[in-house]
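To assess whether ligand presence alters the predicted conformation, the chain was also submitted together with BIS(adenosine)-5'-pentaphosphate. Input:
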Amino acid sequence: MVNIILFGPPGSGKGTQSANLINKYGLMHLSTGDLLRSEIGDQTPLGLEAKKFMDQGQLVPDEVVIGMISSKLEANPEARGFIFDGFPRTTAQAEALDKLLTLKKTSIAAVLALEVPEDELIKRLLNRGLTSGRTDDANEDIVKARIVEYHNKTAPVADHYAKYGKFKKIKGSGTVDEIFGLLGKEIDKLVAEKAEKV
Ligand code: AP5
């Protein structure tokens, strides 16, 4: 099993690249943002509660997203590995994920962190806001609030993985194909290392 965390600020391309990577490597995509938007679409109590935070550009409470990821891991014992997109976003989430993966006798192989200049992030998100209907892309204040939340609560997650030598920065600006190539090179190495061990 190869488990990858695709890390990076809002708009860095995690979702875009995950969609391509799951096709190439046969991994399962777990995006907490997508799971939460699906709950909102279904108007579940969890979705309605989460929406209050998401519309302000704030993180949803840890226990909500940890519970969602735990259920998904349990429901998919046959998966060849996971790409985590938008999770973990706090150190508490990272610690919870370590425990959940240990129970499955597996772990995170690498955290691949997409680096994109802030002005480009803002441009990408506002641009998507024009057509996607995502309420958290609707204006610059909300987009900037998401980026502040990232710096305050999510960026420290890097240290959690860097201490195990699992954190790798990837240039996240350029064409989607160029970035896919850089990510693919890293994942190919991890897959080869895994095959050698088996
Ligand atoms: P989530 O859905 O995870 O959103 P996000 O991380 O804020 O970022 P995005 O999905 O907007 O960006 P992305 O990095 O995936 O980039 P994308 O590929 O989409 O979370 C939404 C909210 O849910 C959070 O704010 C929070 O409230 C809550 N939440 C989710 N997970 C949580 C958690 N674990 N804990 C607590 N709360 C949580 O690309 C963005 C745009 O850029 C697209 O239009 C794309 O076409 C474009 N683009 C991508 N790559 C390129 C490129 N190379 N060149 C030009 N444009 C590009």
